[in-house]
Amino acid sequence: AEAEIGVIGLAVMGANLALNIADNGYHVAVYNRTASRTDAFAASAGALSDRVTACATLEDFVAAIRPPRPVIIMVKAGEPVDQQIAALKPLLDANDIIIDAGNANFRDTMRRFTDLEGSGLTFIGMGVSGGEEGARHGPSIMVGGAEEAWRRVEPVLTAISAKYQGEPCAAWLGENGAGHFVKTIHNGIEYADMQMIAEVYGVMRDHLSMDAASIASVFSAWSKGPLDSYLIDITAEVLKVEDAASGRPIVDIIVDAAGQKGTGRWSVIESQMMGVPATAIEAAVAARSLSAMREQRATAEARFGIPAAQDRRDAQQVIGDLEKALLAGKVAAYAQGFAVMAAASQEFGWNLPMATIARIWRAGCIIRSTFLDEIATAFNENPDVPNLALTPAFSKIIEETDQSLRRVVADAALNGLPVPALASALGYFDTYRRARGTANLIQAQRDFFGAHGFARLDAEGEHHGPWGG
Ligand code: NBP
């Protein structure tokens, strides 16, 4: 047994993670349910073959790893993970560590922790972000489990992780489901980021009548400013790509129906369960669902048409506003995502380190950006702030972008351009910043029909109204 670690599952993510591990000087054993995939992987390992032991059976795989064995499972999330754990369990020894590195629902991770209790085996639920490229050259790694177990795998995980100015983007975030929960919220924020980018693209395409190449130039310019991020970079890049067959921009040929695998939805469900609004993520998830209803949308357009265009403001002014609106929308989405994590930290007793989370998202993952460096600094300086928007740095961004967000949402409303995530960000800020809201009326209604009672501004205790009296 010479391997120091094992990887099960050699589809895109597992294969690249295994190569990354070998690249960092570790000897890795690999196994995949379907042997042909294992063979293909072994054949592709090239110069790294010396440090790869490809195994045809799970027994050979376990035997190839030096105990106590760290075993990374990188298979399709859900049932396959349970099946893989069940198959592994009888073959492993006490102190071996099973690491589920897929996109697990953290509630499944919590259940797996409970199921493995008393088995002598150690479990880690690990969120990995960065797609294929990240897995191969450095992902962001979010770890949940016993801190002692993390210490044992820390060297290899930090070695393979992305680095932000030399700092590894891998960290232990808390017990049991903490890592997978944080990965879920990462993906929820990713949904919001992508949706808001798509919304400003829509304004440029449908309101300013810009072609893909011109829109690409705008995103390229933005990537040198405060919006500098991986998602803005790839947006500029994809907008420039032409379809070989038609010579048209490929985005103009791609069907406008987005897929989703569940992490965005889980973010929304968990935030709702804890009563913490994540409106930008909700809007993004709903927008993907609406995007999938293509036939209905076509029917509705035929029935209602699109509102007539209003007088247009100067295009450069609109573009300037779009940049700032996107920044404002980002502040809302991240403030909401971090608030959801703060609530979950309380609820599940994780003590999530907010600044560390922002730090390990600065490189490797899909939402990597300079913005996250500012978030890390803000949480470092204000560890107990209830909302990112209230930190001095982010209050300032809101002040500087507020009017632009208003103009973008107002223009969009008058022109019938859908900007649900940006509009939700504005609604969130405007609700959050108003000390006297309108829920007094809701409380009156609730008391009227259900005798739910209300608090008074001028007296202690619970009161009822003189309804119908
Ligand atoms: P997939 O999610 O497409 O899963 C394919 C892998 O799962 C194959 O190795 C397959 O083996 C294995 N598998 C299946 Br399906 N059922 C199995 C079972 N019952 N027992 C054992 N193995 C089984 O692979 P992926 O795209 O590499 O993603 C892996 C994980 O990483 C997922 O949880 C995913 O959500 C997560 N993730 C993906 C990305 C990304 O960009 N793709 C990013 C971050 C996280 P087979 O070859 O025998 O069919």
TrEMBL record:
<feature type="binding site" description="in other chain">
    <location>
        <position position="261"/>
    </location>
    <ligand>
        <name>substrate</name>
    </ligand>
</feature>
<feature type="active site" description="Proton acceptor">
    <location>
        <position position="183"/>
    </location>
</feature>
<dbReference type="GO" id="GO:0019521">
    <property type="term" value="P:D-gluconate metabolic process"/>
</dbReference>
<dbReference type="InterPro" id="IPR006114">
    <property type="entry name" value="6PGDH_C"/>
</dbReference>
<keyword id="KW-0521">NADP</keyword>
<dbReference type="Pfam" id="PF03446">
    <property type="entry name" value="NAD_binding_2"/>
</dbReference>
<dbReference type="InterPro" id="IPR006115">
    <property type="entry name" value="6PGDH_NADP-bd"/>
</dbReference>
<feature type="binding site" description="in other chain">
    <location>
        <position position="191"/>
    </location>
    <ligand>
        <name>substrate</name>
    </ligand>
</feature>
<feature type="domain" description="6-phosphogluconate dehydrogenase C-terminal">
    <location>
        <begin position="179"/>
        <end position="468"/>
    </location>
</feature>
<comment type="similarity">
    <text>Belongs to the 6-phosphogluconate dehydrogenase family.</text>
</comment>
<feature type="binding site">
    <location>
        <begin position="32"/>
        <end position="34"/>
    </location>
    <ligand>
        <name>NADP(+)</name>
    </ligand>
</feature>
<feature type="binding site">
    <location>
        <begin position="9"/>
        <end position="14"/>
    </location>
    <ligand>
        <name>NADP(+)</name>
    </ligand>
</feature>
<feature type="binding site">
    <location>
        <begin position="75"/>
        <end position="77"/>
    </location>
    <ligand>
        <name>NADP(+)</name>
    </ligand>
</feature>
<feature type="binding site">
    <location>
        <position position="446"/>
    </location>
    <ligand>
        <name>substrate</name>
    </ligand>
</feature>
<feature type="binding site">
    <location>
        <position position="452"/>
    </location>
    <ligand>
        <name>substrate</name>
    </ligand>
</feature>
<dbReference type="GO" id="GO:0006098">
    <property type="term" value="P:pentose-phosphate shunt"/>
</dbReference>
<comment type="pathway">
    <text>Carbohydrate degradation; pentose phosphate pathway; D-ribulose 5-phosphate from D-glucose 6-phosphate (oxidative stage): step 3/3.</text>
</comment>
<dbReference type="Pfam" id="PF00393">
    <property type="entry name" value="6PGD"/>
</dbReference>
<dbReference type="InterPro" id="IPR013328">
    <property type="entry name" value="6PGD_dom2"/>
</dbReference>
<dbReference type="GO" id="GO:0050661">
    <property type="term" value="F:NADP binding"/>
</dbReference>
<comment type="function">
    <text>Catalyzes the oxidative decarboxylation of 6-phosphogluconate to ribulose 5-phosphate and CO(2), with concomitant reduction of NADP to NADPH.</text>
</comment>
<keyword id="KW-0560">Oxidoreductase</keyword>
<dbReference type="InterPro" id="IPR006184">
    <property type="entry name" value="6PGdom_BS"/>
</dbReference>
<dbReference type="InterPro" id="IPR006183">
    <property type="entry name" value="Pgluconate_DH"/>
</dbReference>
<keyword id="KW-0311">Gluconate utilization</keyword>
<dbReference type="GO" id="GO:0004616">
    <property type="term" value="F:phosphogluconate dehydrogenase (decarboxylating) activity"/>
</dbReference>
<dbReference type="InterPro" id="IPR008927">
    <property type="entry name" value="6-PGluconate_DH-like_C_sf"/>
</dbReference>
<protein>
    <recommendedName>
        <fullName>6-phosphogluconate dehydrogenase, decarboxylating</fullName>
        <ecNumber>1.1.1.44</ecNumber>
    </recommendedName>
</protein>
<feature type="binding site" description="in other chain">
    <location>
        <begin position="186"/>
        <end position="187"/>
    </location>
    <ligand>
        <name>substrate</name>
    </ligand>
</feature>
<keyword id="KW-0570">Pentose shunt</keyword>
<feature type="binding site" description="in other chain">
    <location>
        <begin position="129"/>
        <end position="131"/>
    </location>
    <ligand>
        <name>substrate</name>
    </ligand>
</feature>
<dbReference type="InterPro" id="IPR036291">
    <property type="entry name" value="NAD(P)-bd_dom_sf"/>
</dbReference>
<feature type="binding site" description="in other chain">
    <location>
        <position position="288"/>
    </location>
    <ligand>
        <name>substrate</name>
    </ligand>
</feature>
<feature type="binding site" description="in other chain">
    <location>
        <position position="103"/>
    </location>
    <ligand>
        <name>substrate</name>
    </ligand>
</feature>
<dbReference type="InterPro" id="IPR006113">
    <property type="entry name" value="6PGDH_Gnd/GntZ"/>
</dbReference>
<feature type="binding site">
    <location>
        <position position="103"/>
    </location>
    <ligand>
        <name>NADP(+)</name>
    </ligand>
</feature>
<feature type="active site" description="Proton donor">
    <location>
        <position position="190"/>
    </location>
</feature>
<comment type="subunit">
    <text>Homodimer.</text>
</comment>
